[in-house]
Amino acid sequence: MDRPLHAVVLPPGPPLLRALAAALDGGPAICPVSPATPEPALRALLDALAPDAVETCDGPRPRASPARRVPVAPGTAVLIATSGSTGTPKIAELSAAALRHSAAGTLERIGAAPGDRWLCCVPTSHISGVQVLVRALVAGTEPIITPRFDPAAIAAAPPGTHVSLVPTQLRRLLDAGADLARLGAIVLGGAAAPPALLAEARDRGARVHTTYGMSETCGGCVYDGTPLPGMRAGLAPDGRIRLAGPSLFTGYRLRPDQTAAARDGDWFVTQDLGALEDGLLRVRGRVADVIDTGGEKVAAEAVAAALARHPGVRDVVVVGRPDPDWGERVTAVVVPGPAEPPGLPELRALVRETMPAHAAPQELELVDAIPLLASGKPDRARLRTPRP
Question: N or C: which end of the chain has fewer CB within 10 A?
């Protein structure tokens, strides 16, 4: 039987939660879309998605004519647009079984107790927000949904409430003086977390689990370096991380070519570099974020991790910026801490303690805050462009 597909252009809240619950129970599959999406990007997404209807705050309206209908597979419940800032969006199809498996694995791994609640303060048009809601539905509890990240709302949540955050949000909670010991588990993903940030949060009583995953794996599928039950992690010959198991996506909407390119048998081959150390998966950064400077390859995340050890570095992102002589120059964009701001020579020396000389940053830019995407990840494209 054909299963209809609805684009759900709704803000975080009860209507979206009801649409998600219906999708998990066999109702129309949904693709959550932020109401703040610019009109040209929304049109491009809807053209790629080909939904039967678009649901907004004003109610559903038909989208596709019967002749253009392309139903989703019977088991598909949620579709997530994984890109689309340029070109045609790529839309991952997730089954209800995969979403539930991921949620149940998370609840088991963090030791959630019956009746535990979740607070959702990450975008519900991304897999991070969707999975917070799925975990609450699987646990049979009512989620607390905030329209945006708000330290006061998190501080006011009932004791023991679990929350999903990105590192920048955790940093802001610490700066706001939040009592992190009141919270349940903090599921931290979306970007690499500086070791100093994790140490400070744990010293303040936070129970933090670092996670790795993406839309194609129903969100985080590796917790603290160990895959969730049923999931497997490995490495391709070129060092890229491979993931397999029942939380994998079924394919990209209407793009079998993209699906075939991303799969190797049972494995999903990511665009992230990694290593297996003592049985734990360590993420080294995106393939696209490797900096080519003077013919040498530099892993940006590894350099950032080294720089984060400096007491004067509160937050840092490392990018490659165009350079006429080197091709790209290693650039450290740093948010300084309350101590004396670091200088380029001392940061270069710090990196050279553990990495080759060509990995040391050639440029330092001090900023008040790292620019972020809607997902909470650093806006690397913006950071690669030097400020005037």
Answer: C
What is the sign of the dihedral through the CA atoms of 256, 211, 240 and 272? positive
What is the per-residue pLDDT across 174-192, written as a single tens digit (0 to 9) for each? Answer: 999 999 999 999 999 988 8
**List of residues 6+ apart from 290 with CB closer than 8 A:** 273, 297, 298, 299, 300
Query: Tokens representing 151?
Result: 């330290």
Rg (CA), the chain: 21
Place of tokens 């007491």: 311
Instruction: For 341, list phi and psi in degrees, rounded to 5.
Output: -60, 140
Q: Where are the alpha helices (DSSP H) in the chain?
A: 14-24, 39-49, 96-110, 127-139, 151-155, 167-175, 195-203, 256-262, 300-307, 344-352, 380-383
- 326-363 burial by CB neighbour count: b if 16+ within 10 A, else e? bebbbbbbbbbeeeeebeeeebbebbeeebeebbbbbe
What's the Cα-to-Cα distance from 139 to each of 118, 121, 189, rounded to whole Å? 9, 18, 21
Per-residue pLDDT tens over the stretch 279-330: 999 998 888 888 999 888 898 988 998 999 999 998 999 999 998 888 999 9
Helices (H), strands (E): how many in the chain? Answer: 11, 24
Distance CA 169, CA 190 (A): 11
In contact, 193 and 206? CB cutoff 8 Å: no
**C-alpha dihedral (213, 217, 221, 227), degrees to nearest 10:** -110
Is the distance from CB of 128 to CB of 189 less than 8 angstroms? Answer: yes
Tell me the two tokens of residue 257. Answer: 């070519």
How many Cβ atoms sit within 10 Å of the Cβ of residue 260?
11
pLDDT: which is higher, 86 or 42: 42
Q: Which amino acid is at 98?
A: A
DSSP string over 62-96: E-S-GGG--PBPTTEEEEEE---SSSS--EEEEEH
104: DSSP letter: H
Both tokens of 250, joined, read 């079924």
